[in-house]
Amino acid sequence: MLSCPVCLDTFEDPQLLGDCAHTFCKRCIWNLSPPRCPTCRRGFRPQSVLPNFALAALLNERQQGRGPPPVGEGEEEIARSSDDQPVEQLNTSEVSGAGGGLRWIKELKRDTTSEGLSVENLTQLGLPAGLAKLVSDEDRRAALRVFLLDNSGSTAAPDGRILTPSEKDGEMPVFKRCTRWEEVVHTALEHARWNLQLGTPAEFVLLNPLSPGGTLEEGIDFQRVDPTGADGPKGGEVQLATLEKMLHSTAPRGATPLTDRLRKIRNRILPEGREIARRGQKVILVIATDGLPTPVRGGGATRAEMHALGEELRRNSAELPIHQVVRLCTNESSVVNFYTSLDEEMEVELEVIDDMQGEAKEIQSVGNRWLVYSPLIHRLREGGTFLKVLDLLDERRLEPMEVCLVCQLLLRPSADDPPLPTEPEEFCQAARELLPRLPRVFCPLRLAMLPPVDINELECSVLQRGKLRRSCGDCEVRYCRQM
Known about the structure:
The structure is a single chain. This protein has 483 residues and is an alpha/beta fold. The protein folds into three domains: 1-84, Zinc/RING finger domain, C3HC4 (zinc finger) (Herpes Virus-1), CATH 3.30.40; 89-353, von Willebrand factor, type A domain (Rossmann fold, 3-Layer(aba) Sandwich); 387-483, no CATH class. The chain has 19 helices and 13 strands. It has helices at 26-30, 53-63, 75-84, 92-96, 119-124, 129-139, 180-198, 232-248, 258-269, 273-278, 303-319, 333-343, 356-365, 375-382, 388-391, 400-411, 424-434, 455-462, 474-478, and strands spanning 14-17, 23-25, 49-51, 142-149, 160-164, 174-178, 202-206, 222-225, 282-289, 322-328, 350-353, 441-443, 448-450. The strands form four sheets. The chain has a six-stranded mixed beta sheet with strand order 8-7-4-9-10-11, sandwiched between helices. Strands 2-1-3 form a three-stranded antiparallel beta sheet. Strands 5-6 form a two-stranded antiparallel ribbon. The longest helix has 19 residues, at 180-198.
């Protein structure tokens, strides 16, 4: 499963095509003419090719006796590519005008040499060892997380859904019906607590400010949660309490001026964009919304507004060191189709995430039935993960090597354990032996605690049909024939 599809040798300096997420050796990619993926025949842009850090770490462990993976690969390339991009000068009149004061986003550069949780701390929070290592590594590449929270009038619709603990001890969590705004609030507070634990600065900004005059006021229109700030860890808890008070005192109101707000966010990031890229970091922007973009002064969504929002997202991808996520809080087909079409564009670095149950259903429907889509995986994807294979879960059936990568993250009990074998039959046998020893996770579809992967479905995804250990009923008919 660690063989390059082009040269058929073990991957050497594995690189990931950002447009389709297939992986090949670096030398194999640069020998392609024209630049088309050998697996799916989709064209790719040379600047979209990035190191596959997760696969490189696995190869490093395999070759060097589980030594630490190389850190920082690709940062020089990021810095060089940022120098090639023209940097727009900050328009201070626009920033200080109808959009907020200059004190909204503080200095974005983040020194991560002594911040964040160690792998040991993360495993104590319940993360598997492999996933804890991934979260620790990715945290150092996050300069800041910005959550843009849609509080427009349409979020008063009562078709939201959140996962809440059961009122009775010992029973499973339950999904509760609520308004879309309550779903946005619940998502924001979950991520505020999570980033506070990680030590990652996060800002939560209302789409429609409440303060008069257009200037954003801290504690009213936005709130920063940063345990590494001047007030220390206790300051982070105070900020969290202020955020909770701010969100619970806000009611849905106004239009959905997403384009205007994105423009102001870009102007705040631009002055520090080069330095952020030199550090190998990115700003992660999460847009929690339920609707299509509208003008600032109200009115319905138009083709012009939708085109303008698409242009802003494309411009962000081209000019900024940024990772963009749209967290949809609606199932309206027009909204879902619009953002999905943007996600499919080559020019936009964007991931579109549904609610937990919706994502779990999509992951099953594309053929990744081996994975139990836990709340932890959902939270990581909502908050923006740099590991492309996790974003692919709801887009297509993962290839055996990609399945192996995800299982390496989920199934290793501790960092001291060796990687799972990469020969398919040995890999499945090792996974089958490990599963009884691993903690169970909550399944949002079956509303039960289950092992993190379904071993029979895993074998269907990895093994050739003739080598399956056992028949798995309709699973064999529906999926094994696609091998």
